[in-house]
């Protein structure tokens, strides 16, 4: 039986005879039209970066932020339909605030990914709603040490927020990507958007699972990867937006913050030089092949 043109894509709650949910597949296609977004898990922190295509010369530079803070130690980035991404930011903030109210401590990165993923998945079950047309990347740092909590959410309980048990410390960097189906996985490096394949190939070259990449070097690599992914649409101008989260003894003191302008400018210069170097190598290779012929 064929499921093309037979109406199985008219509602979100119907499977085709071959087990496909076309509405979810269409949502994934919407993500592919968005700017490239990446997340990199480093030895001492996490980095988020996104390619913001400049659609009009009237847009103010530096405005229209695409990376949002969910809690003091969490950031979120989305690729796809921007309004859908903003709605998920609002939902994630509600989940983080609810966890603080109930448990008097920051929400763990795995729990936040589970809650947001479950919310996204619920929008694939009913015919009265449509799936979210975004892929979301969550980055956070789960505290390894005790920290004070705002008086607004009460006093900290005796149980340690960082998962401390008999001198055993848990915590550290967390990076999760949530797809339009609600599926989420933990990653060392994640990529979404139009340049996903290029970005994924570059991330795999970094050997992130070894845990050797520092946060400072990761900022430069993130800029280089975004510039490489932009090559497919290099006729369009873009802005690079980037944020980071470090350990409690790092540059952000465990908080999610925008990368300082001077560091971001240095990373963009590094990316530009790297791209020019690749172009020179391609030109030299082409010249050698011509001479051999």
Would you write up a description of this structure?
With 293 residues, the chain is of the alpha+beta class. Helices cover 35% and strands 21% of the residues. It is built from 6 helices and 10 strands; from the N terminus they run H-E-E-E-E-H-H-E-E-E-E-H-H-E-E-H. The protein has helices spanning 22-32, 82-103, 109-122, 196-204, 215-229, 261-292; strands at 37-42, 45-53, 67-71, 74-80, 134-142, 172-178, 184-186, 189-192, 238-246, 256-258. It has a 5-stranded antiparallel beta sheet with strand order 8-1-2-9-10, covered by helices on one side. A hairpin with a 2-residue loop joins strand 3 (67-71) and strand 4 (74-80). Helix 2 packs across helix 3 (109-122). The chain is globular. The termini are far apart.
Short characterization:
The chain has 293 residues and is α+β, with helices and mostly antiparallel strands. The chain is 35% helix and 21% strand. The longest helix has 32 residues, at 261-292.
């Amino acid at each position: 039986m064929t499921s093309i043109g037979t109406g199985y894509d008219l509602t979100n709650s119907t499977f085709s005879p071959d087990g496909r949910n076309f509405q979810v597949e269409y949502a994934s296609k919407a993500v592919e039209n968005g700017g490239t977004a990446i997340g990199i898990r480093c030895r001492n922190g996490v980095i988020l970066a996104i390619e913001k295509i400049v659609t009009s010369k009237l847009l103010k530079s530096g405005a229209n932020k695409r990376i949002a803070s969910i809690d003091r130690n969490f950031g979120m980035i989305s690729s796809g339909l921007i309004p859908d991404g903003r709605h998920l930011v609002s939902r994630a903030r509600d989940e983080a605030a609810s966890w603080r109210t109930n448990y008097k401590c920051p929400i763990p990165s795995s729990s936040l990914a589970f809650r947001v993923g479950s919310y996204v998945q619920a929008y694939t079950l009913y015919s009265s709603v449509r799936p979210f047309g975004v892929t979301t990347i969550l980055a956070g740092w789960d505290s390894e040490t005790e920290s004070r909590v705002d008086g607004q959410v009460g006093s900290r309980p005796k149980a340690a927020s960082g998962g401390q048990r008999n001198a055993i410390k848990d915590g550290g960097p967390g990076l999760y990507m949530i797809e339009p189906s609600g599926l989420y996985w933990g990653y060392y490096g994640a990529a979404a958007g139009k340049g996903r394949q290029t970005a994924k190939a570059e991330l795999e070259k970094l050997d992130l699972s070894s845990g050797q990449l520092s946060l400072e070097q990761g900022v430069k690599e993130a800029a280089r990867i975004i510039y490489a992914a932009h090559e497919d649409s290099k006729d369009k101008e873009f802005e690079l937006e980037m944020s980071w989260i470090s350990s409690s003894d790092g540059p952000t003191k465990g908080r999610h913050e925008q990368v300082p302008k001077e560091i971001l400018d240095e990373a963009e210069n590094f990316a530009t030089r790297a791209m020019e170097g690749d172009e020179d190598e391609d030109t030299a290779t082409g010249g050698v092949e011509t001479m051999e012929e």
